[in-house]
UniProtKB/TrEMBL annotation:
It comes from the Bacteria. InterPro entries: AAA+_ATPase (IPR003593), ABC_transporter-like_ATP-bd (IPR003439), ABC_transporter_ATP-binding (IPR050763), P-loop_NTPase (IPR027417). It comes from Streptomyces oceani. The keyword ATP-binding applies. GO terms for molecular function: ATP binding; ATP hydrolysis activity. It is found in: Cell membrane. This is ABC transporter ATP-binding protein. Its main location: membrane. Keywords: Antibiotic resistance, ATP-binding, Nucleotide-binding, Transport. It is a peripheral membrane protein. The lineage of its organism: Bacteria, Bacillati, Actinomycetota, Actinomycetes, Kitasatosporales.
Length: 282
């Protein structure tokens, strides 16, 4: 496998040689020594990671790997115990205003102002972002149309389905035209039609030169969307690089991922469930 697979490797956006050979690569996100512990449990263990700009980036890992904790620290929602994060050159904790003006965030378990309609929510978010009223209305109308929310724009958000909530949340994250968009499990619980709509908007966004970083544990989705991948397990980066580099000689990203996280041999074989035979032996 060509991608870097060291648990505590030196900081690198690609592998060490690639960084030395291509110093012109612009980084959207630079993470150094990021660490977070909850009581006795280490959630994130000294992560070093550079994410290249203008890419569709997947942060993948099993449940409990530290993906949500990492994204929460990177976006300034959770303070790390140690380490630094820079987004398009600005320190997340020393220059939060500059960072927040350049990023859009769709966090896990998104909480919205449910007593506002979809249109009112976007108008309110535009005011918070300091956008002129006319520009907010223009962008809101386009987002509602592209995300297929036009017919629901005057409904209260509390009455939105899961897919509609994800779409209006994405609209609020895109409204101010950020340079980097962070999405935590954006397709979780979303119906296929809404998922296809979200996917189309994100592909259009990255084609414009912006960066999308999204977490997922669905390898097929990551493989179909992403240019660049970082694999996280037990709070550490296990591999990083282009999709082809991380996949290596494995037939799929799923197979490579299972090997990287040490689950390649777990396929339900053995005698531990020998009683499970469709009810024949109770």
């Amino acid at each position: 496998m060509k991608a870097e697979q060291q648990e505590d490797a030196a900081p690198a956006g690609l592998d060490g040689e690639a960084v030395a050979a291509a110093p012109h690569v612009r980084q959207a996100v630079e993470i150094r020594g990021l660490w977070k512990q909850f009581g006795e449990r280490i959630a994130v263990s000294g992560i070093d990671l550079d994410i290249p700009a203008g890419q569709f980036v997947g942060l993948v890992g099993p449940n409990g790997a530290g993906k949500t904790t990492t994204l929460s620290m990177v976006t300034g929602l959770l303070r790390p115990d140690s380490g630094t994060v820079r987004i398009v050159g600005h320190d997340v904790w020393r220059d939060p205003v500059a960072v927040k003006s350049r990023i859009g965030v769709l966090p896990e378990g998104l909480r919205l102002f449910e007593r506002l309609s979809g249109r009112e929510l976007l108008t309110y978010m535009g005011a918070l972002r300091g956008l002129p009223d006319e520009e907010t209305e223009r962008r809101a109308s386009q987002l509602l149309d592209v995300l297929d929310l036009g017919s629901a724009q005057h409904k209260l958000v509390i009455d939105y389905s899961t897919g509609m909530r994800k779409k209006i949340g994405l609209a609020t994250a895109l409204l101010h035209n950020p340079e980097v968009l962070f999405l935590d499990e954006p397709f979780e619980g979303v119906d296929p039609v809404s998922a296809q709509t979200i996917r189309g908007v994100l592909e259009r966004y990255t084609n414009s030169g912006a960066t999308v970083v999204f977490s997922s544990h669905v390898m097929e989705l990551v493989e179909s969307l992403c240019d660049w991948v970082a694999v996280l397990a037990t709070g550490k980066i296990r591999a990083r690089g282009s999709l082809d580099e991380v996949r290596g000689d494995a037939p799929s990203l799923q197979d490579a991922f299972l090997e990287l996280v040490g689950a390649g041999g777990r396929a339900g074989s053995g005698d531990s469930l020998d009683w499970l035979d469709g009810g024949g032996a109770r």
